[in-house]
Structures are given as C-alpha cells and as structure tokens.
Amino acid sequence: MNRKLLLLVALAAAFLVAHNGVAQEANAQNKNGKKKAATAGLGGKSPELPANLFVAASTVAHTTLRHEWIDIPAGKTKLHTWIEYPKDEAKAPVVILMHYEAGLDILQRALADQLALDGFIAVAPDLLSGRGPKGGNFDAFAFPDEALRANLKIPQAEAMRLYKAAYDYAAKLPRASGKIASLGCSLGGTLSFRFAAETPSLTAAVVFYGMPPSDALLTKINAPVLGLYGGDDDPVDATIEPTAAAMKKLGKSFESHVYPGATHAFLTYQAEGLNGAGTAEGWTAAMEFLKEHTK
Length: 295
Hints:
Oligomer: single chain
Strand order of the largest sheet: 1-2-4-3-5-6-7-8
CATH superfamily: Alpha/Beta hydrolase fold, catalytic domain
CATH architecture: 3-Layer(aba) Sandwich
Largest sheet: 8 strands, mixed
C-alpha cells in the first residue's frame, strides 16, 4: 500500500470517528483535562488554538481580521488563494499554508485565521485551482470525496510549482517582513517538508503528521523543520526516527514531538482520543517555533 493510499485511509477513518456525536467531544475534553482543549470544543474555541471541525465555519464567518481572495498568476493557472492578515498594519512574517487532502475547505480557512491571530500573514493557495468542474476551484466540487480524490492526483512537483508562485507573490506583499515559512497538515505536512527542500530561502517549515521527502531531497534543506505527530498514527510515526537520524547525519535542523494518544489529523478531529491535548501542545509548539525563526 503506497503512502498516499495510507494517508487517504487514515483520513477516511478520521471522518467516521468525527461524526460519533457531541458526547464524544465533551468526554474527550474532560479526559485530557487541558483548559485550552476544553475551550476549543462545540461551545466555542480558545483564542490560542485553531478551530475544530465543529466551529470552523463560525470562526471564519465571524473573524474581524482582514482577508481576501487573490488569483495569483502561476503559468497558465490562476492560483486561487485565501490571504488573511494580522490586526494593525505592521509588517509581519508570512506562512504559506498547505492544505490537507480534503482541500482548501472552511476548516483550512479557519486555520489561516488562527495563523493571522498569532501574528502571521496567512497565504493559503488552492491546489485545485482550475481543476474543478467546468474549470472551477475547490468550491466547484459538489462532494468532499470528489475534491479529495482530485487532490491526491496532483503530482508533488506540480504542487511545488504552485506553492513557489504563492511564495514569490507573498514575498512582495507590502506588509511582508521578508521572513516566509510553510505549514501544513497531513498531505499539506508532506508538502511543507518537501517545500523546505525545494525552496532554499524558506525561513522555517512546520509539518503536522506529514511524510518526509526522499533522502536526496533532505540534503537540500536549509530551513529548520518541526515535525508534530500523533502517537496513534503508525504509518507516519514509522518515518520519524529514520528522518531524525538522516537529518542529524546531514547536519540539518529537525525537531519532533509525538503526542501520546493523539491520532492522525488531531487538529481536525479534536474529539478523538487525546487529540485535544495534542492540539493544545502541538499548536503552541508550532507557534513558538515559527516566532523564534521568523524574528
């Protein structure tokens, strides 16, 4: 079974778990006892954490931060991109948000909102730009599974090309400070890791439960990389120690954290297992890492 299929199976299983009901959400939050995780449930979200599956739409609808859709030229593609800015008008570092298998859905836009709340200009391209029905984008797909299958057909080289176009555009934003990092979850995490190899000027890369690139690509990485993983995510977890060893041998910076009891896609499905605790600890670690490396 190849890596993409393993990730697809994990994501599909997580979708089923997520719909077990409101009781699971409350029980999981009570079990982990984390104050931050408890406030990120159905009744609302912590201002310090990204929205979960249940409150993402409300988060995006009620944000007070400036946001806009931009079509970035990328060869023959118009890369439909959601950009959200921190409050005030000061210059800020940029984070290229690389979406997961499901696409640039409302949950990913809520993640962009959290990045902006944390002080970053969030640039979130839609890899399905022009690939939807009648040449549409992600929102042109009638069903989520159709978008997911379409995303998994995009070659990583093409994803890199599109993200580089977004990187170049973001670097010229009037409010951009000159520091640009990447962050992604699942498939987006895999792409964030590879982007560090493909983009020598990248400042930092955050990988939530993503796969590493090939050993040959690891040699090209200049940026520090942070990997954040659930302890109950066997296909991905099996890559952590070999990746750490390879990066160390190459003299590259790779830091990793594994959260016991958390599953694949723990930022999305905060009701499952100890995902609430993983979210609270993982997101905090990611923001500390990004702020340190984008000063």
